[in-house]
Amino acid sequence: MTRNRRITLAKRPVGQVTPDCFATDEVELPTPGPGEVLVKVGWLSIDPTIRGWMAMDTYLPAIEIGAPIRSGGLGEVIESNNDAYPVGSTLFGMTGWQEYAVMGAGSNVIPDGIDPTAALSVFGVTGLTAYFGLLDVGRPVAGETVLVSGAAGATGSVVGQIARIKGCRVVGIAGSDEKCAWLVDELGFDAAINYRTEHVGKAIRAACPTGVDVFFDNVGGDILEAGIANLALRGRIVLCGAIATYNDDAPRPGPSNLSLLITQRGRMEGFIILDYMGRANEAIAELAGWVMGGDLKFAVDVVDGLDNAPTALDRLFTGANQGKVIVRL
Amino acid sequence: MTRNRRITLAKRPVGQVTPDCFATDEVELPTPGPGEVLVKVGWLSIDPTIRGWMAMDTYLPAIEIGAPIRSGGLGEVIESNNDAYPVGSTLFGMTGWQEYAVMGAGSNVIPDGIDPTAALSVFGVTGLTAYFGLLDVGRPVAGETVLVSGAAGATGSVVGQIARIKGCRVVGIAGSDEKCAWLVDELGFDAAINYRTEHVGKAIRAACPTGVDVFFDNVGGDILEAGIANLALRGRIVLCGAIATYNDDAPRPGPSNLSLLITQRGRMEGFIILDYMGRANEAIAELAGWVMGGDLKFAVDVVDGLDNAPTALDRLFTGANQGKVIVRL
Question: May I ask the CATH architecture of the domain B125-274?
Answer without folding.
Answer: 3-Layer(aba) Sandwich (3.40)
